[in-house]
Amino acid sequence: MKKIIIGVFALFLLFSFISCDFFVTSWGSGMQRDLNAALKKESTGDLAKLAKDPNYASDPKAAGSLLNALSDKTPNEIKSLRPNEKEDILALAFTASIPMDAISEVLKAAENGEEGSGEELFYALIDSITGFNTKVIQTILSDTETQNTASPDALAGASLALVAQVLKRESENLKFDDLEGLFGENGDIDSQKITDQSKTDLKAVKAIYDLFESGDRHEEKLTLFGQSINFGGDE
Prior knowledge:
The protein starts with a helix and ends in a 7-residue tail after the last strand. It is globular, with a radius of gyration of 17 Å. The chain has one domain (2-228). By secondary structure, it is mainly alpha-helical. The protein has helices spanning 2-18, 29-40, 44-50, 54-57, 60-71, 75-79, 83-96, 100-111, 118-128, 135-141, 144-149, 152-170, 196-213, and strands at residues 223-224, 227-228. 61% of the residues lie in helices and 2% in strands. It has 13 helices and two strands; from the N terminus they run H-H-H-H-H-H-H-H-H-H-H-H-H-E-E. The chain has a two-stranded antiparallel sheet.
């Protein structure tokens, strides 16, 4: 399971790096505060419409602010959104987690053979991940309608973003050589010494994994940017 987690996270970073042309300069801190305040006043429906706006869909900080605002809404409000709106919101999770300038610097250092163990590189990447309130993403991923209708790319991207968010949130409590504990023995997530939010996020990720591994969508491939993601095996 540990190698699955690391492999999935590596894919998450790899495809983000390949797609870095989608990312633009983030909002300044002053504008960010104004943006956060403005978004809090918007309705759930109006926030959902912004999810496909290029100003949010291509900027990590703006996307994170939008997800934070949506996470303040009730689960019922979130679940009442249209399927396409939910999918647009899922796509934001991937954008919000990736500060491409920091990721690029870390990967450049690795390519140049600069000193540092795999563990050091791993934690450097963790430090580069931008945190956001994951409530809206895990709510949508846990929604039966979304599980049945959303594209594999949207489900995979949001799932990997949640894994990244959990690793970011729990990095001080997790040992690099014992990452399989993140999912627990025999899938017992509740037994792990991580926050309740992280447990809920991981359960949402596991639901998507089960859906494509042995559930109603087992005949489909879970994909990201058109590339198949293989979750099978513990090697």
